[in-house]
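In practice, a research group might receive sequence data for several interacting partners and want a quick structural hypothesis before committing to experiments. The following worked case mirrors that situation: the sequences arrive first, and a predicted assembly follows.
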Amino acid sequence: MSDKAELIRLERVAKTFTLHLRGRALIEVVRDVSFSVHAGECVVLAGPSGAGKSSILKMVYGNYRADGGTILVRAGGALIDIAAANPRAIIELRRTTIAYVSQFLRVIPRVATLDIVSAAAAEAGLSSEAAREQAADLLTRLHIPRQLWQLPPATFSGGEQQRVNLARGLAATRPILLLDEPTASLDAANRSVVVDLIKTRVSAGAAVIGIFHDEDVRDQLADRMVDVTRFARDRAA
Amino acid sequence: MSTTPLISVRGLGKTYGRRVGCVDVSFDLFEGEVIAVVGESGSGKSTLLGLLATEIAPTAGAVRYRKRDGTVADLFSLSEADRRYLLRTDWGFVRQDARDGLRMNVSAGGNVGERLMAVGARHYGNIRAAALDWLRRVEIDDDRIDELPTAYSGGMRQRLQIARNLVTRPRLVFMDEPTSGLDVSVQARLLDLIRGLAADLGIAAIIVTHDLAVARLLSHRIMVMRQGRVIESGLTDQVLDDPREAYTQLLVASVLAA
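A structural hypothesis for the assembly, expressed as tokens:
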């Protein structure tokens, strides 16, 4: 790994929620989270549900704030600490460097599936024609029937929505890919399509942090596992 | 991209005697950025919008604005001519009630054309062509161009108001609850339209809304106001998904999930 650039480095990252509506209860999710990910490497976060896997991923995306530590990300030539970056810098990072795919599709109602995916591709700088081609290619590979492309995904099945979400997340090629259970409600055939797509990105040099419930998917993709329970509060687990 | 903000707000405030409109508001906004101001009624968000649009005089603070020629001016010491130029061309203001933002006794085409004439367009054919083009962009059929806005539905009026505001290619658009009062299906269409136009034209927008879903879909950043103060601000999805302040947590927890 040492010959490949380090793209992500977390150092002593901590997250505690203060629940004001429950008498200011403090929920410490993780502390001292430290690991790094290199280009061309897929690191899988492991641990039982509630251990803080998603929270770590969301902090790397800038969706949750870190309460301590640093989250360094290499963007072009620069190192940016997401834990301290201003909103403008994070928006720029998301446009150029970091893609995030969750298991939930959140879109503006009424927008056609093909347009959603094309827009994501265009965001990273593809021409509108190239973006549409890229979108069509991904939707085809992910087995979204062509007759659904002009429809908004709101009425699609859970699995279809998840695949649209994946198409959108993968539409732009970004050097860092964060995946939160992207295969949760997919059948075996579609799971293997997704695994192939992710593998292609990794061998092209992407740094991936993933959460995969499915052991089979995990085994196929993980270059390394990070056990999140070691960052838990009591460390007993 | 310029490193000078389009608009830079520092310590802005307005008090009415002892009553507080808004206090100590500071933020920067660049081209292409959309910021949402959320809070309950009476939180000061409309006062803030009025101050920024120079409709209300502040009692504290300053707003610096980068003009088209690149020079930076203090908004509240502009000459009346400069101020009017900004209002007519460089800025747009989409009102909650379209009747406040449109001239109801002038045709739809006239409403759009009027803004162009205010900046010197004189050729009738060109003005009508530009009006038609903008009506199409907001999805209003060609054959409705000569109708009065009174004949339009609420959603169409709101789209007409957007066309009227954007025809001069403003760099900054203020929006006061642009989708409230509309049917949900119309709202979705309007949100998609606003988002697309803002992204395509690279305009900066300040949107006041009490609807967190609208803020999430349209804005990059968010400011939460309460009792005249900005109590929390940041990246929109961060503030909504990981709210820090008690009041913001209450707001987020109070949203009905559909």
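Before designing any experiment, note the following. Chain B touches chain A through 23 residues (CB under 8 Å). Chain B has one domain: 7-253.
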